[in-house]
Amino acid sequence: MILTLITALLTGCNTSRSTDEIDITKLPSRFDLRNADGKNYVTPVKTQRYGDCWTFALMGSAEIAYLYANDMGVPAGEKNDKVDFSEKYIAWYMFHGITKDDVVRGKVRSSQVGEGFDPTAMEKEKGELSAYFIGGPFVQTANLFGSGFGPVDESVKVKDELPYAYNDEASVEWTLPNNAEYRNAPVSALFRDSRVLPSPSSTDADGSYRLNKEGIDAIKSELYQGHGVCVSLNAQHPGLNSKNRAVYYDGDEKPNHAVAVVGYDDDFPKEKFARTKSDGTVIEGSTPPDNGALIVKNSWGLTTFDGDTDDGFLYLSYYDHSLLSALSYVFDNNDKAKHIARNIDQYDLMMTIWYGASDYETETRMARVTGIINPGESFLYTDGKWSDMSERKESLMDTAYQQCAQVVASDKAIPQFELNKRDFTVDNYPIKAILSPKEK
Length: 440
Description:
Elements: E1 2-7, E2 30-32, E3 39-40, H1 53-69, E4 74-75, H2 87-94, H3 120-126, H4 138-146, H5 180-183, E5 191-196, E6 201-203, E7 209-211, H6 213-224, E8 229-233, E9 240-241, E10 246-247, E11 257-265, E12 293-297, E13 304-305, E14 308-309, E15 313-317, E16 324-331, H7 334-337, E17 358-359, E18 369-374, E19 377-382, H8 393-410, E20 417-425, E21 432-437
Parallel strand pairs: 10-15
Antiparallel strand pairs: 1-5, 1-17, 2-11, 3-4, 5-16, 6-7, 8-11, 8-16, 9-10, 11-12, 12-15, 13-14, 18-19, 19-21, 20-21
Helix pairs in contact: 1-2
């Protein structure tokens, strides 16, 4: 199974149960994190106010991963509100780049000013809340977490106020200050890694839909390990069986919504997705090819269909044509986090649009440029693991050199060093650039 692994560089981080130990054929036919061995690890359903469903999907899955890692489940059937990660924090600071007021000694350097998305033009045209309507980048949020920003709990106070609390009332102030005091809020959970899973839907050579079973299996495996998972899908279609809270879409429209996945049921009957006409006959195309559904947590509150209010959870067919962008989160438990120190030294703190795949069981370091600056042991690492890309070694070495040279030239934190191309070495892990003391 090939997955993309986006990892925060932390010392001493190892998964307690890796996916290669999970035999898919031995997974239970049904698994639900609302009742996993009698415990509920799923936080309550919320109501999104703007076009920020992606933040609810991401924070909902992150909350699951954190609660599971810390064994913070409550008895099944009870409300689990032990953690409440802020959707508002992520939605705002994801799309507001680093400013000079964000610079903090030891965390955000002056060289970072200007990094990230600049919403100035968009806000002038569409208003100051434009960030809440952009739509969500799953991978980039993992990048933000890996850079040491978030998740932040809504209970965190600044100046005796709760600025990160998401309230669906229009009267609430929705903007956040772009400065260090607010952006650098205390991180509420130690992010370890995020996994970009294979897409559950695929297409044949002629463009027709095909189920990618590997994608469904990957989601099931992650859920069974207590890793929160989110997916994107198309929600603007009539494919809801309101009585059974079952969703199936067989069209070609792209995803426009995101949800957190809390479980699965291999035996959920395909007939429960079928919709009927007024005369009772089944609408053509409303029944998926086979049984099976993901159990998902939506962000539309407790919605009412046909006079019946639901619980905010839906059954989503494995065969839904629009299922894409599955991603999972892994967090370390609090006891372990106390003994882990970040050794990441980011050059690009904000969003990246590139990511690559590596063998699932292989440790991969995924910051743009990381470094260790110690007497007698000073070097920079560049992106990724190059050992499987030997045919591109020379071009990668050139790219790595340019990246590291830019860091050394622009970052005032390491003025005593210089970089020479001859100092590059290639090991089994990232290209290593040794920094030499400047000649006086």
